């Protein structure tokens, strides 16, 4: 099958990039993930971090990392680039770059996550060029420079090895005849086909799940319709109750009106009583003022001999009051002489 491809400078360019994507980048990410895993290993982390990881996986990826009825028994070497990227992003304890994970980073951002995203983007670019299986010198050099710099920075900052940059440089200068060129192009195409099969399988499973969900939704709709019917009946009952309440409110309003009239009458009676009490209080006050004066005058009359104590004993209190009023009208001497 390899003989179907005619070798050229452009196909050789594409084959060199393919080899980086197929061989170098996955191995680099595997070594990086190993440095980020605890001593307990990958299987233990997948178990403890399942809630965080499971939701971001495609269906076929879930089947790989979380097989039904068991735990993942493979190693990091068995993981493809897509799974390596997901695990580094979610359990690698690597801070997000300025544009955040999954986005093209700023050119000046040389952080670890930025370089990982650059390698992911270059892989996607190679897949996009796969139908032509060729790459111009300009496009090739631009991609190569990005990949080499990212590989070098990850290697120097995170890994205790120099082998990945060496591998990149060797692939750039190695002899590649048409058989080797076709070999890596074929390998890339197989990777793409495998990814497509997995994606198609995942889509089919998702469609099946959607069908089940649709069936469940239909059942829920039926239940909702029944509930709506019940609600309508309840609304009818409520309307009747509201009518009864309105009648009761009308009766209460009439009672309140009558009570207001009664309150007004009571207020008028209370006001009248207050006026009478004020009048009575005024009269009582005047009488209280006169009693001390009368007592003092009787004492004075007694001392002067104008009246005798025996007379006081005989006279009633009314007589004493009359004497007070009479003497207050004129000279008490004239009363004594008479």
TrEMBL record:
Protein name, UniProt field: DZIP3-like HEPN domain-containing protein
SUPFAM superfamilies per record: Bacterial hemolysins (SSF58100)
InterPro entries hit by this protein: HEPN_DZIP3
Pfam family, one: HEPN_DZIP3
Annotated source species: Mizuhopecten yessoensis
Top-level taxon: Eukaryota
DZIP3-like HEPN domain ranges (all copies): 42-184
